[in-house]
Amino acid sequence: MTDRYASFAHSGAGRFLVRRLGLPDPPSLRRHRPGAEFVGPFTLGGGGRLAEPTRHILDKLPTAAGGADERTAALIFDATGIADSSGLRALYEFFHPVIRSLRSSGRVIVLGSPPELCPSAREATAQRALEGFVRSAGKEIGRGSTAQLVYVAPGAEEATESTLRFLLSGRSAYVSGQVIRIGPAAVTAPDDWDEPLVGRTAIVTGAARGIGAAIAQVLTREGAHVVCLDVPAAGEDLSNVANELKGTALQLDLTAADAPRRLADFIATRHVHADIFVHNAGITRDKTLGRMDEGHWASVIDVNLASQERINDVLLAENLLGGNGRIVSVSSVSGIAGNRGQTNYATSKAGVIGLVQASAGAVAERGLTINAVAPGFIETKMTAAMPMFVREGGRRLNSLAQGGLPVDVAETIAWLAHPASGGLNGNVVRVCGQSLLGA
């Protein structure tokens, strides 16, 4: 759906009124285009244990000049050397002179140590303080720029490349204010960073339209063979998506009693195993709690949460995910902040976060990962049907002052599904333009 306000704000008269009246000013975001290089230059500061590994990664990136705008494209600071609160001054000393010269669609990345792994309370305190800095910076920099904090555990220094590539590229255009955790993992770089999923099979539920179709498209672009799964009622749309991508269509109601068995048999018979499983299928049945009937409650919990539990059980019990396999679940900002009229939906999406975090340890023991994305306001047919003022509120109440696109969710999932993202496990990454609601 067209964002008419953003179109007006970018017009000559609109720009004048936006500045004069202090109205929201949605920037034009630089999203990924196949074959596009990273825009430089990058500025790296700090002197902890991540400085050298990060410099090595930056030196490998194919960069292009920013055209007429030669200002810094990314400010990256290694804060792992900060051992107490007095050391936090280094953040000010690095960013203060240069933060206002960051170019449009620029990137701020702070690298830290997980507070719970720090050897002293003072160091843990200083490292935890980085979250407040990054989230505030993300709300100040404007012009489509984003800010992230990446906690890298000791021993995970060589597992950061896929994350830095994602955060420095247009793939992360609608991700901001996030705290990402990377743990130790054996990571092998792909032969081709543009098609890292060649030879891998991905299954995407709810793939017939919207975000699910975008996920299938991006994973195909990255080289995967995608099995597009949806309910029989969406069969025609499902076939169209699968045919366009040269993938496979699988009609299956995930709430059916025999769905896990049928899915397991399909994987074992057709593919031996899957490499990536994306739990995207979901429904809404919105009513305030006092007006909600039991069927609306039960159906949302079953589709959005319980079906994921049942599928994960069979995937793990029967070893249907290959080595270095990935499970990615779609949650929602509603599961973090709650939402009026969505007690059922928010409960299910908070449960998805719980499922990911509770499963991370057992999944890691098998050499697999499980993570979640939590979209905010994304431009889909569902959000287009919202009342106008609710829709406009959803679009503007984030640091980027606009709604995201289905491709923004898909790009984030592709990063979590990347074969070099083995250090990412148990993360919940919001794709919300740094929503001003929720944590």
Structure, described:
There is one protein chain. The chain has 15 helices and 14 strands. It is α/β, with parallel strands linked by helices. It has 2 domains: 38-182, NAD(P)-binding Rossmann-like Domain (Rossmann fold), CATH 3.40.50.720; 201-431, 3-Layer(aba) Sandwich (Rossmann fold). The protein has a 7-stranded parallel beta sheet, with helices on both faces. The protein has a 5-stranded parallel beta sheet with strand order 2-4-5-6-7, with helices on both faces.
List keywords for this structure.
439 residues; alpha/beta; Rossmann fold; 2 domains; 7-stranded parallel sheet; 17% strand
CATH topology of the largest domain: Rossmann fold
Share in β-strands: 15-25%
CATH architecture identity of the largest domain:
3-Layer(aba) Sandwich
What is the mean predicted local confidence, pLDDT?
94
Supply Rg: 22 Å
What pattern of helices and strands is seen along the backbone?
HHEEHEEHEHEHEEHEHEHEHEHHEHHHE
Q: In short, what is this structure?
A:
It contains 15 helices and 14 strands.
List the helices and strands and how they pair.
Layout: H1 4-9, H2 12-21, E1 38-39, E2 42-46, H3 51-60, E3 63-64, E4 74-78, H4 89-95, E5 107-112, H5 121-140, E6 146-152, H6 161-168, E7 178-182, E8 201-205, H7 210-221, E9 225-230, H8 235-245, E10 248-251, H9 259-270, E11 274-279, H10 294-317, E12 321-330, H11 334-337, H12 343-364, E13 369-375, H13 381-384, H14 388-396, H15 406-416, E14 428-431
